Amino acid sequence: MALQNEFDLIAVGGGLAGLTAAVRAAELGLKTAVLERSSEELYFCNSRVAGGVMHISYHDPAEPPAALAQAVTGITAGYAERELVEAFTSNGLRALQWLKSIGVQFALATNTGWRNWLLAPVRPPATHLEWRGIGADMCLRTLEKNLRERGGVLHRGTAVFDLIEKQGSCVGVRTRQGGREVEFHARAVVLADGGFQGNADMVGQYLSRKPQALKQRGTGTGLGDGIRLAQAKGAALSDMQAFYGHVLSRDAMHNERVWPYPQLDELAAAGLLVTAQGKRLGDEGQGGVYIANLMARADDPLATTVIFDEAIWQGPGKAASIPPNAVLVEQGGTLFKADTIRELAAKANIDAAALEVTVRDYNAALAANTLGQLHPPRSSARRKAMPIATAPFYAAPACCGLTYTMGGVRTNAQGQVLRAAGGVIPGLYAAGAITGGLEGGPVVGYGGGLMKALTFGLLAAEDVAGRR
Ligand SMILES: Cc1cc2nc3c(=O)[nH]c(=O)nc-3n(C[C@H](O)[C@H](O)[C@H](O)COP(=O)(O)OP(=O)(O)OC[C@H]3O[C@@H](n4cnc5c(N)ncnc54)[C@H](O)[C@@H]3O)c2cc1C
User: What's the longest Cα–Cα distance across the chain?
Assistant: First the structure.
């Protein structure tokens, strides 16, 4: 095995987290390298194809840290670890300003709430995976340019498969470059290889009995390598059973024009999600990310259908920035329509008698303000439940879109990887979608994938530089 290159900091993965860590470290005078598995010039990763909305739990990162902390804690129902929440919410705005300072462009808006910070050029409202030359792609290109200007390197076609340990500290990585094995040594390694959404075995272990029945709502480049390597060195893992994703048309399994948008989240959250047996799966009122997780856990994730009426179609159906009404049908997504629930069930291949009972019971509970007594209970605090009463009625066959996994390696506020037995693993850091503890929990709270990658990539680099 050839010995190559000594660095201060190595980032594993060239997404937003890895590039941010490397550029910030180079700016602080460290010798840095990014090791990226893909050999493509514009290599695919979730960071490159993202929508570019920089938010913290659907809030503007410029809001006061206390308000942001309340938002993250609230959306995760208290699951998010306090230390991570504080680091995230008190450094998010600074991280955004840093990104701006190195030349990343934003379409800054005001009074648009959580969409105030958009990477520019802003993604057009396309339903398919449109990314080339758009904000998130340009952000990665700007980061890479900065890295080179500051003397850092990005090695493409370099897949990390092992961590090098010396007396309990991480001191480098082993990689495959083409047919060769090459070692890279460093004072600090920042694992930033995304989550495990692209690893069917791990998805099967943690998220769904039928991993192939989930739609990869992203690039699927996160193979869980960093999580497995860190765990083998004694790292602590968070709860692993939550992911960030959305409810999509089932046609997304074969039609590229109906993913990553439109999301059917708002239709399901205002109406119902049912199985082929006409039964509800769980609490639709927790919103689309939660519903997508419910679908993944179902016996058959590809046999669920969103049921709603004309009022929902004309209201929440038009609410999103790329609303299902009307792009779902325009782009070839299936939507059944009928004047009665019985007729609708027949068209959508759902048990008609059972669906009639489910809709009747739901409408009655909504009218009587007893949604919490349904089986399973339905909440209406986060998303307003609406009756299914105004014909025509609609059924949209659905599938679960898996964007990235929320569980992973546990870290402290500086991004140092925690040891399961206590303390940290010296020299080992993690940032971005590989990390757990900030998002997820019983109601599957979402913190904002881009801001998480950016902020903790920055903090890891600063900690490494501070220990020089
Ligand atoms: C369609 C879509 C829209 C999104 N929109 C938004 C949005 O608007 N706002 C938001 O906050 N979030 C959004 N997200 C989520 C966001 O993109 C991610 O959470 C974030 O980019 C994760 O960044 P990361 O650097 O941790 O991982 P990634 O971007 O996944 O990068 C990881 C990199 O590591 C590389 N890698 C993997 N294994 C190895 C290995 N063994 N050795 C070397 N390299 C390896 C991969 O090839 C990849 O390049 C969106 C995601 C998708 C898919």
Answer: 72
| Mean pLDDT, rounded, of the chain | 97
Instruction: Decide whether any atom of ligand 1 lies within 6 Å of the 172 Cβ.
Output: no
CA of 433 to the centre of ligand 1 (A): 7
Map residue 232 onto helix, strand or coil: helix
Token reading at 11: 């980032």
Identify how many contiguous H helices and E strands the chain contains and give both numbers.
Answer: 14, 16
Nearest CA to ligand 1 atom 2: 50
Strand ranges (E), 129-264 = 153-155, 158-166, 169-177, 180-191, 215-216, 243-249
Q: How far apart are the first and last CA of the chain?
A: 28
Q: Is 221 in the pocket of ligand 1 (CB under 6 A)?
A: yes
Identify the CA nearest to 230 among candidates 15, 413, 408: 408
**What was the pLDDT predicted at 1?**
47
Residue ranges of domains in the chain, CATH in brackets: 2-238+406-466 (3.50.50.60), 243-402 (3.90.700.10)
Q: How far apart are CA 246 and CA 262, in angstroms?
A: 9
Which residue, by CA, sits nearest to atom 52 of ligand 1?
50
Q: Residue 110 above 80 pLDDT?
A: no
Kindly give the distance from the C-alpha atom of residue 306 to the centroid of ligand 1, in angstroms, as a whole number: 29
Name the band, by pLDDT with cuts 50, 70 and 90, for residue 4: low
Distance of CA 27 to the CA centre of its chain: 28
16 Cα to the center of ligand 1, angstroms: 7
Counting from 1 in the atom list of ligand 1, the atom nearest the Cα of 193 is 34
Query: Residue 229 pLDDT more than 80?
Result: yes
User: Measured from the CB, is residue 12 less than 6 Å from ligand 1?
Assistant: yes
Does ligand 1 come within 6 angstroms of the Cβ of 61?
no
Tokens of 84: 């991570």
CA dihedral 441, 447, 452, 453 (to 10 degrees): 80
